[in-house]
Structures are given as structure tokens and as C-alpha cells.
Amino acid sequence: MKKTIITIIAAFVIFSFLPNKAEAQCRQQMVYTCATKGQSIYLRDFNTKLKNTSTNDAGTRWTVVLNKDAHYRFNLCTPDGFENKVILTLYDSQHPEKTSPYGSTFNATTGDHYEQFDFICKKSGMYYVSIRFKDGVTDKKTCAVGIMSFVGSN
Amino acid sequence: MPKKFIFHIALIGILALQLSTLSSCKNRDDDLNLTDSTTYNINPVIGQESIDEIIGSFSSPVEMAASMKSLDVEFSKKYLIDPGLTEDYDSNNKKAFALGVLSADLGYLNIYERTNLIVQYLSAIKRLSDDLRVSQFFEFQTLKRLATSNDNIDSLQFLSVQSFRDMDEYLRQSGQSSLSLLAITGVWLESLYLLTQVANETNQAQLKDKIGEQKISFDLLYGVIQLYRDDPYYVDLLNDLKELKNIFDQVEITYQVGEPETIIQNGTVTIIQNEQSIVEMSDEQLEQIILTTEKIRNKLINL
Predict the structure, then answer these.
(1) Does the pLDDT at position A9 exceed 80?
(2) How many CB atoms lie within 10 A of CB B232?
């Protein structure tokens, strides 16, 4: 009995660190590769673990401050097999995520998926970036990495 | 004995599975009521999570430098802080602010590939981050090796920026948002300082515009700093920044409506945002911003 209690405590101690390590693995394996794909300058990354639930939109949203006259690039990297199942979207309240975002790695009209899109900002301010499972995807979970990088000044 | 061993292993496995499931449930997509690019007034009753989201939304320590380089602005070491200055800082608030300033300067050096100067900035950042107990986010040996070998500038840039962002995120997640805010303020103020110094010398119209546009991010930052006004360090900071706020308040930003345009060429998607912000700022206001930024920055770093 004593051994069992010790095992339970040890398991809690050991595995309370597990989530961070799992996230770090995703970061180490994917962020660097994703961030150094092109010629643009890495600014920040958007790491997420996606979990499909029936009650909400599976995904994460971040706010970003973008500057006027900057040419940004947004990349999305996912594990093999998830290329067409996850979407990165850039939007604000005037250009809502679901109806008319500025940009997305998925074109709902044509059904095309893109690894990346460029955004030429003409208005400084706060915007949102989301990474979510595409509607209708039944996979339970995965991780995904978005990269925001700087291409140049316009 | 083997049965007990199997039982213990199974128990560990079940606990691990449950804990990792809990962690994957983490979803930051809560019902936030933030303003965005359409407006930029701060909500005075904003919650801690929203405050953290705003702090985390600011641009990286390299963006302003990258922007200046892309406009063919030449490098100059004279704008940068002397890293030795930060040795005597005695409070965590000062150290966090200086960490931001040094990170912006490190970003500037990285972008201009001045790797010979980087090591002394890395050493100062290491000292401050050790004091703030966040040095685990900086792989100093790797950063120094990359800086001295001078053969992988992309990796150096990537690792420098990611280390700063990871540290910043950790500060917010561990209940030290006020230090994170100071680091971000340090980055922002030093970036503005670099921009204003360059604009003062080169007189480029695009740089002038960029300075005026900083009114938007400054208002956001100032609004969040105000929320910490119970802290005496922040009271002093607000008093210093108030002078800059008064000048930026006179800068007019108007908006020209337009719908975004999407161009797809050779499989590359480019979105051009045709809605524009237009800065109206007099030369006198510009001069005041340049002088005031220099004054505040120098005061805060004890020059």
C-alpha cells in the first residue's frame, strides 16, 4: 500500500512536467523548420495543440499588433497528414473570422489550401490570428504551428 | 513482485494519459472583449487575461530594425545602449525594463548582422535574466556560438527572438505580468528611440510616418501601464511617459475606407489591405517626439 502511494505521488511529480515537454517537443520539431523555410525574418510563432470537441470551435486565437506599410507572411505547419485539416486565419472585427477575414490558408470558395499567405498592412493596430481545425474534420487532436514573419517595407 | 511492478507501471500510464489530456484541453480562445485595429481605446475594467493578451500582442524585438534595414537605413552603433550600464540596476523592475531595451538592441545587431558586437549584449542579457530567474529561456552557449561562428545568422535571429518571447510568455503565465509589461515597454521604447534617431538624421518621409503610427501602439501600451499605477515604479514611469502621451495626442490619425484585395500569383497568395490609416503630424510634433523619446529613454536607463 505504501509503495502504491509513493508510486502515485512519484507519477504526479513526474507527469506534472509532461504537458510542457510535449508542447516543447512540438515547438522544437516544427517551429524552427517552419520559421526558417523562407527568406523572411521570423517575428513570432503561434503554437497550439488542437482538440476537436463538439461544444466549441477547436482552436486558439492570439492578438497581434501589426504596423502600417509592413509586408508580413503567415505560415502554417502541421504534422504529416494534417495539411488540409487545419486553418490559420487573420482577421479583425470589421473582417470577421467566419465571414470575411483578411486572409486564410484555406479558400472556402475554391477549396484550395495554402501553406502561407502574405499580408500588406496599411493600417497599424490590433488584429487576430487563429488556428483551428477545418469544419467537418473529425480528427480528435493534433498540434499546429503558425509563423508570423517580416518580408519587407512597402 | 512482477504483478506489483506491472500494476505500478499501469497506474503511471493512466495518470500520464489523464494529465496530458487535461493539458491539451487548454484553450485560450475565451470570450475576450478586446478592441482591435478598428479602435484602440483601452477598457478600464479589463481582466488580467485580457491584459496579458494585449501585452503579448506587441511586435517582436526585431521588427523595427528589420523595417529600417528594408528602407536601406545604415547601421550605427552610436544609438545602442552600453550594456555595461545595466550592471548596477538594483530592482527587478529596472532589470526587466533593461532586458527589453537590450533585446531590442540585440535585435538591431542581429538584423544588421553585427555579430562581433552581439556577445557583450548577450552577456548583459544573461546577467539580467539570471537575476530575474528567467535565464532558462536563453540558450546562451548556443547563441554565443552562433554569434561567434557567424555562419548561421538565421538561426541566431530565430533563437534570439524566440528566447525573448518564451521568457515574456513565462513571466505572464507565472503571475509576473508587470515584469513582462516592463520588458515589452523597454523593447517598444528602445525601438522608437532607434527609429526617431535615424529619422532625425536621415529625414526620410517613410520613417516620419512610422513614428506617427506609433501613436496607436503607444496608446495601447500606455493604457495597460495605467492599470499598474498602484506600483510606485509605474507611477514614475507614467509620469515620464505622460509627456510623450501629450505629444502623441496631438497627432491625428484618420482612416480611408477600402476593401482588401487578394492576388494569387504562382501559387502565392498576397492580401493588400486597402483600408488605410493616414498620419497627420507636423514637423514640430515630430521634433518633440524625437526629443522626448530620447529624454525618457535616457532617464530610464540612467544615462
Answers:
(1) no
(2) 9
- Give Cα B80 to chain centroid, integer Å: 16
Q: How far is CA A78 from CA A85, B45, B112, in A?
A: 9, 37, 32
Task: Write the burial class of residue B162 (CB in 10 Å: 0-12 exposed, 13-18 middle, 19+ buried).
Answer: buried
Domains of chain A by start residue, with CATH: 2-153 (2.60.120.380)
> Is B227 a domain residue?
yes
Q: Is residue B102 part of a domain?
A: yes
pLDDT at B3: 56
A153–B206 CB contact, under 8 Å: yes
End-to-end CA distance of chain B: 69
Q: What pLDDT band is residue A3 in, cutting at 50, 70 and 90? A: low
Is A61 within 8 Å of B28 when comparing Cβ atoms? yes
Assess if residue B81 is contained within a domain.
Answer: yes
Distance CA A146, CA A35 (A): 9
ipTM of the complex: 0.82
**Alpha-carbon span B162 to B247, nearest angstrom:** 33
Look up the domain containing B246 and give its range. Answer: 47-254+283-300
| pLDDT at res. B97 | 95
> How far is it, in rounded angstroms, from Cα B301 to Cα A117?
40
The alpha-carbon gap from A140 to the nearest alpha carbon of chain B, in Å, equals 11
* Calpha distance B79→B92 (Å, rounded): 25
Residue-wise pLDDT for A20-55, tens only, equals 433 434 666 688 899 988 889 999 999 898 888 766
Taking 70 as the pLDDT cut, the residues of chain B under it are 1-46, 59, 150, 303
Spatial CA neighbour of A122 closest among B211, B218, B272: B272
Least Cα distance to B27 among A138, A62, A60, A147 occurs for A60
Percent of chain A with pLDDT over 90: 56
How close is the nearest chain B Cα to the Cα of A64, in Å? 4
Of A57, A65, A103, the CB nearest to B59: A65
Contact B67, A67 (CB under 8 A): yes
Which amino acid belongs to residue B290? I
- What's the rounded Cα separation, in Å, for the pair B97 and B185? 7
